[in-house]
Structures are given as structure tokens and as C-alpha cells.
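Good morning N.,

You mentioned wanting to compare the apo and holo forms, so I went ahead and generated the holo version with 2-phosphoglycolic acid. This is what I fed in:
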Amino acid sequence: MMTVMGFDVALMLAGALEASREGAIARRTGASMRPSHRRAIASTPCARARDVRARVGSGKFIVGGNWKCNGSRASVRELLRELNEGALGDNVEVVVAPPFLFIDDAMATLRKPYQVAAQNCWVEPGLVDPTHHYDSDTGAFTGEVSAEMLEDLGIPWVILGHSERRNLFKESNEFVGKKVAHARYHGLNVIVCVGETLEERESGKTMDVIFAQLQAVADEIDDKEHSSWGSQVVIAYEPIWAIGTGKVATPDQVQEVHAKIRKWLADNVSEEVARETRIQYGGSVNAQNCADIARLSDIDGFLVGGASLKGEDFVKICNASSVHYKAVGRARK
Ligand code: PGA
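and this is what came out, ligand included:
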């Protein structure tokens, strides 16, 4: 297993495996190896290791705006204007996720510190790859967008495993785990969503469901003992019964689940990762209820759907970061 090897050695081996796999794909598809890929293979292992280490997390409060499949050219322009006019505090990291077609507009228009995310990206689900890089995302996959394309366009974040993708598009835990590993390989930061249905909560299965979702991600992480995924992967706890329903989870429910997720990370990944990983709450967060949840110690931010479509409200939710830092007495990052 890679986890028992030195990180650089493991990555070099991964690079060699990847190169041979790329060759195998080229043989299978009749395509020659892409020059960009050849360059990447020649130079990456150590470079990527350095990249990964350099991205140690800041632990900053982080708020995501998931616009889902909403917006028109005109409404998106208006929303971008409202966001740019909002007075954002400097103690919060903010990531907005427009539909693919509007990402370009958002990247060109939004001022700092706004960052942009895609709402999904692709990896071939049936692929088995011991390197966990699954580098076959470009090709005959009509209608999909690859992690490689997001990397190419400089899109820094992607949301993966949202319950709408898991439920409506039948994405399994394993598929989501593969996507997370693959997106990380392309240098993307990931917000990975986990959460239970009402039925699962009522039958006492909340943590079993969430741990299985987390395990499927952890199974794909080769460099568990390093902190990189703590800074590169944000976990969004989103109880499905609270999404878009106006039924927000109580502060106690949220704190309990977040604390258990953090303990699970400490027990199953590492103490360092548990400390560094930011855990967001998502599900009917709005400008009125955000402060109550932001006060909790294990809440490192929000993932917001409906209320992220109203610029002024979203900025208020982002600024709940101040409530968090004050309540938990944590040094401002
Ligand atoms: P909501 O959605 O804020 O509209 O409940 C949250 C989400 O799905 O990320």
C-alpha cells in the first residue's frame, strides 16, 4: 500500500503506473498520448507532491453558494453585481458555484475574494485504477465536463456528491469517492457533501450513512497520513430533509454530527486531517438563522442553496463568520 511508503516514492510509482495506464488507454482507443499529458507525466510526481504540501489549509470559515440549475443571463449578471457590491469581511473564504454555462461570466466579473466552483465533474465510474487517479475523464462521455477541463480553465473548486446527484443521478458512494480522488489529482479543491434522509435519521442510521459516505472518499486517498486532503477537501454535512425544505436542523443536531465527523476523521484518517478539515453545514441556511449555527464550535462554514441566489442575504450569511470567531474564541485566520 502507498501509505506505508515515502510520499515521493509513492507518487513516483503512481506516476509510472499512470504512464503505463495512459499507454494502455491509448492502445485501447487508438489515440496517441496527448502532448500535455506526456509533459505532465514526465514532470509531475515530485512537483505534485510539492504542490500538495504547499496547500496546507488555513482553517478559515468557508461559505459556498450552490446556485444549482438556476439563473438566466440577466439574473446571473444581477446576482454578480449584488455580490460585488456586498461588504464581505476578510475572515471568510467564499466560493460560488454557478451552472457551468455561467462560470466564465462569474470568473470574469467577481471581485476578490470570491472564488468559483463547478457543481460537478466527471470520472469513468467503472474504472479500477490502483493509483486512484482515474485519468480517463476526457473522451466519449457526451454531456459531461471533466476535471481536466476545470483545471485547464483555472476553476479552483468543485462540489461533488451533492445529495441531488446521489439521488437523482444515482451516484454511488464509490463513484463519489473516485471523483474526489480524481479532482484532487487535477489540483482542484473539493466540497464533498454527505448527509442522511429523514427516514435514515428516524431509524437511528444517521452516522452509519455518513461514515459510509466518508469511508468511500477515504478509501481513495493515498496520502492519508499527510494533511493535504485536510486543506483541499471540505466536507459539507447536508441532511437531505433540510435541503430546500425550510426545515433547518437544530444547532444541537448540527453540532453533534459535525463533532462525530471530526472524531471519525481523527480515528480513521489522522489527527492532523481532523483538525484541518473544514466542515460546513447545509440545509435551509438563510440570513436569519445563520448566526445561531455559526456560533457552534465544529461549524466551519455553510453550503447555501436557495439563499445564495439573493446577493444581499448571501453576503450576510458569509459575514456570520464573525459570529463564529467571536463565539468560539478562535483566533481570526
Ligand atoms: P438549501 O440548499 O440552502 O436551498 O436548502 C442547500 C444545498 O443543497 O446545498
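Confidence is low (pLDDT under 50) at residues 1-58.

Happy to go through it together on a call whenever suits you.

Best,
F.
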